[in-house]
Amino acid sequence: MFAKKQYNAIHIISGISAAAVGVVTAAMICVMSVMNGFGSMVEQMFSQFDPDLRIVSTTGKSFLTSSNQLNALYTLPEVAILSQTVEETALLQFEGKQMPVRLYGVDSLFPQLTNIQDIITDGEYLTYDGAFDRAVLGRGLAWQMGIGARFIRPLQLYAPKRLVKVNMLRPDQAFNDEVCYIAGTFAVQQAKYDDEVMLVDINLTRRLLDYDTNEVTALLVKLTPNASIKHAKRDIQRILGSQYVVLDRYEQQADFFRILRVEKLLTTLLLIFILLIASFNIIGSLSMLIIDKQADIYTLSHLGANEQMIRRIFLFEGWMISVLGASIGLVVGLSVCLLQEHCGLLKMGNGMDYIVSAYPVTVQLPDILIVAAIVLLLGFLAAWIPANRIKIIK
Questions:
Q1: Whole-angstrom Cα distance, residue 125 to residue 24?
Q2: Which residue among 5, 45, 95, 221 is least enclosed by CB atoms within 10 Å?
Q3: HEC string of 254-323?
């Protein structure tokens, strides 16, 4: 690697090759860690609202619960809280404004199941005050409807009646309507919740949708602190059978996390392509080195070295360039990630317009191992191409 050579250009090209590999390696570590950081940040936001596990039916939108079924779930040591919910699309009307909303009918256990109290931005969390039904709206939805937490005018909700044909002469009779009053607003920092969701009491939702008193669209489960999600899913699925499916937090937001994984994969493939281009420097450096060391090759061959041994020498040296670049890149990439994680050096915009002021970073060991394996594999292939062409001329 560092021995004296006849042409200084070989040293320069070798240095450039190692530097190029190091830069791409560091970039891959940083990009993958930032992707992980965004995923962890959004997962934490969703966890403020989503339960640990959600149980839904595989045969229809709603299903009937029984006391035996609920008691069987409560016998599991992993289950801490079991809440019922009825979710459906409804029409919200206020002061002449109308908007479709995702209506979440929740029971009294919902605040214990989620961190809803921590994301209330105005007013309070309350779905029933003992006399009137109350509602908690997403902050974006409340803004679009022009509603504040201290408004005293009622909100009107409409939903189609079940199993009723529409009378074209009186289409208004095909809808149920309910009245409630706003209690507060919340913000998950995700548009699918903040701009669409409205939380109300589950009994109001059942009346609006003509549901039975024990009919739900999902059961929400909160696990004990040290419970294994994998084992809990398996045990709950065993009790309920194939008519139900148990979803963890990733499966509840499957579309989002699938998009995030695709973005991470495409970005990694782009950097691998750049690394492949950078590896051509190794081919050029090693090819020049082979030309420079023809006399040494001739001497080694007369001392008894065969072509395989000589190829192995040059293959090892070419691979050392990749190892050196990968080592430097890993150190630089991890250092940058640690500095970003603890100091927030790289800001997002002016640091005030986003949910977080600096790019989030989460370093994961599998990513480091994958990057190292890719760099070393491409480095080996780049060194093998020129080394394999060595011919000893007697």
A1: 49
A2: 95
A3: HHHHHHHHHHHHHHHHHHHHHHHHHHHHHHHHHHHHHHHCHHHHHHHHHCCCCHHHHHHHHHHHHHHHHH
pLDDT tens digit sequence for 309-320: 888 888 888 788
β-strand pairing of 79-94 with 97-106? antiparallel
The token duo for 329 is: 């890149």
The whole-number pLDDT of residue 148 equals 87
Dig out the tokens for 323 from the structure.
């190892």
50's CB contacts (< 8 A; 6+ apart) are 114, 249, 252, 253
**CA dist., res. 134 & res. 152, Å (int):** 11
What digits encode the pLDDT tens for the residues 157-187?
999 887 777 666 666 677 889 999 999 999 9
What is the mean pLDDT of the segment spanning 76-99?
91
Return the DSSP state at 162: T
Report the alpha-carbon distance of residue 136 to residue 194 in Å, rounded: 11
Residues in the chain: 394
